[in-house]
Queue: 4 jobs
Job 1
Amino acid sequence: MPTMHENITLVALVSLALLFGCAGNGVAQEKYDALSASCSKERNGSAALLSDEMAKTASANARASSCAGERQSLEALLSVRDSENAALKVKAAVLDAAREKTGRIAQYGLALQYYQDAFGPGKVPNTARLKKIDAQLAVVNDAALTGLVSGVRNCQGITDCEHAKAMVQPYVEKQQQRLALEASAIVGAGQ
């Protein structure tokens, strides 16, 4: 068994051999300095590229944030426009209903005009005038008015005919007034 002194000597010899062996295989200082300078240069270049990319990312994020804000503004504006359009559609429906009533007033007026052209004072009904009345009565589609005009056509005697003729114009005017009130009520309710 080796003694302690021999062990220490052996460790010292092995250490020297390793030290001299590593020193002989080591990198020269110039190569190390060149490699270190190259690494520093690449590190600085990478840092500059990273800084540029971070600036581009920050700029893109700012644009994205701006776009998001603009989108929210446009969505809010679109919501307001949708509400306005809905209100306009309601008003348009009201006006359409009122227009339908006023259109019927005009149709009654035309029926009365055709009636007076055929049966008014000093007028003689002929086939063309009677056909115009019939066509307009079909448009008006009022059974009571059709009955009144039929009563005038089929009346017997002067008194009966005068009575039948006297009922048509007041009936038409009453219907026109009723429709005018309904149209006014529709417009008033829609506001």
Job 2
Amino acid sequence: MPKITRLDEVSVFGGRLAFLIPHEWVEVDDGEENTFLYQYPNADSGWFRVSLNTLETKRDPATRIKEIYSRGKGYSLHRKTGNRVLSYDKDTENEGTPLHIYFWLVANVVRPDRIHQAIFSYTILRERIGDQGNRDVINVLNQIVPQAKFQHGSAIA
């Protein structure tokens, strides 16, 4: 994996979500609707995926997000953005291939009446967990994913 030296901002879901990715990553069509996938060109491991959930509420969204995310263990508050963030990882398999997936659930209020939750994941071949390149990517993602920006935007693109 090349060293990450530059980040680019991408905006998806009709402008409702913006976040940073390594400059070298390309968007890949994986055939899944309402999901965006990024990776280094021709990568055989290291797929970064994002999806977005929206909750419209008649109650004050700031109060509602506190109710929802104060019940969940492990959520933290990102000071700069106000995002609620939960990160974890797990082993899994896909058609017999051992994989390891890192997850970040990032949520925030979008005035006047919405809560957006982005689900970010980074999937690698399990045998690559200890690779320095993978550790470098995870360190960068741990810093940039919690800074995702939510906006009202338009309908899903």
Job 3
Amino acid sequence: MRIEDLTNIKKLDIEKEIIEAIQDTKDELPNLTTDTTCMIYSDYLSRNLTKRHVINRIVSTSDYDLPYYHQFNIVPDNDKLYLIDLTFKQFQVSKLNELLQKGYMLVNTDTYGEYLDIVGNVNKEKEKQH
């Protein structure tokens, strides 16, 4: 038996479960703005994913020693990794369109790094402008 087989014992369609957990979270927080509410959204989403037996983790940019604090969720699925951030649009960038539209996306090393550069260095960019 491979360890990967133990992470999704029920053989769930992880992407389908993510979509439904996102919808549950949005239904629970219908009037909450996405500006500076990453901790609330990531916590609710984590609980909704856990209810669906989806392994997930709340990650913080402080885990990477980045100057701007932001939280988001990751979900491993065998050799894939989903990044979920329901507040990403607050950063007002035109990159990572799938994340902007769906609230989640599959990431690789490059897209994960690009995402962290955006969300973890917001204040750094603002300081450069002044």
Job 4
Amino acid sequence: MGQRLDAAARISARTVRAAARGPIATQLRENIAFLRRVAGAAFTEAVSTPRGSGGPHEAPPHPGLERQPAAEFRPGDDEHCTCRSPSWCGATKGDVLHDLMTHGMRLDRQQAEAIWDEAQGARAD
């Protein structure tokens, strides 16, 4: 019985070595190496990027103001509010327009943009 197990182990070892030299094993090793590089780069990026620097929505907006849904984003909606607080309040043009169009006054986009532009112009003066 022991001799049979030893013979089976030798045959299995030869089969594994032969399979490890084949094209499928080579492709598998390349795929694993690629995935390790991608995972390492993703980890490095996650560690090196400070929390909250995710683009237009860095800081939370004014209390009571909801974020603009990503599906409604248009070019220029990432413009920051020009309020005079010590640091940026977190509101963007898109957040304010979304609030005016859905929760606040339920205006159309042109009216909401006119209010945004008027408020930003008043702060600049």
